[in-house]
Automatic annotation (TrEMBL):
Keyword Membrane found: no
Family label: Belongs to the ETF beta-subunit/FixA family.
Annotated InterPro entries: ETF_a/b_N, ETF_b, Rossmann-like_a/b/a_fold
Name of protein: Electron transfer flavoprotein subunit beta
GO cellular component annotations of the record: cytosol
Domain of life: Archaea
Pfam families: ETF
Length: 248
């Protein structure tokens, strides 16, 4: 997801956010999903693999997962064009189904509960449906027990508890755990690890939704006035504060 602390501008065709001056980061939901995968793998003698679909720059987020001590990473590398949720989910499902094309090559698939930018809650449930897996979103508690995963999610007035047969998929909500902070040494080691790359193919779907354009919000930035530099600016600052106090 883009770190949108900076002012957003659009491409000339109004179809995408101009990310040339933006940084990208992992959403809090996905950080908790990665942390939970690592903990489950450690507790049950398994492996944790981070998987992402995106341009070559998405490698940086995968290396963050490796630095958090995930075992492997796979990038479904695209040319940078935007993929809709259905295309994204189909490509992820194909990658997760493995060589057999039918049986998933994992026991538990953890998704961030929703995308942090538009919160559309689409990819996880679509992947689960395509792979015919049980799925619960909004998970705030998770326990593996004898071939099942017991998950909890908060609802108005209480907590819902579900038991899913493995393999299964869940949407992890921020707060499930406290993600670990990768040390500088771990980050350096992660840069040396290999990342598997695959070339996904965007599936065609009938009844596509056509995006007409994006609209950037109006800027709320205020004008700035330089009052001076160093000690010479003190009188101007004092006068400004005095005027403000008189207004109050």
């Amino acid at each position: 997801m883009p770190d949108t602390g900076a002012k957003l501008t659009l491409t000339d065709d109004e179809q995408h956010i101009d990310t040339s001056h933006l940084g990208f980061t992992i959403s809090p939901h996905e950080e908790c999903a990665i942390e939970e995968a690592i903990q489950v793998a450690d507790d049950h003698d398994g492996t944790a693999t981070v998987l992402s679909l995106g341009p070559a720059d998405a490698e940086e987020q995968l290396r963050t997962g490796l630095a958090m001590t995930a075992d492997e990473a796979t990038l479904l590398e695209t040319d940078g064009k935007e993929w809709r949720p259905r295309e994204t989910a189909a490509a992820l499902a194909d990658a997760l189904s493995g060589d057999s094309g039918t049986d998933p090559e994992f026991d538990l698939c953890l998704f961030g509960n929703e995308s942090a930018d538009v919160a559309n809650h689409q990819v996880g449930v679509r992947v689960a449906e395509r792979l015919d897996l049980p799925f619960v979103a909004g998970v705030t508690g998770l326990t593996i027990d004898d071939g099942t995963v017991v998950v909890e999610r908060d609802v108005t007035g209480g907590t819902e508890v579900y038991e899913l047969d493995l393999p299964a998929a869940v949407g992890v909500k921020e707060g499930l755990n406290q993600p670990r902070y990768a040390s500088m040494r771990a980050k350096m080691q992660a840069r040396k690890q290999s990342i598997e790359r695959q070339d996904p193919v965007a599936s065609e779907f009938e009844g596509r939704i056509e995006k007409v354009r994006l609209e950037a919000p109006e800027s709320t930035e205020g004008a700035a006035e330089v009052l001076g530099e160093g000690p010479d600016a003190v009188p101007a600052v004092v006068d400004l504060l005095r005027d403000d106090l008189e207004v109050i």
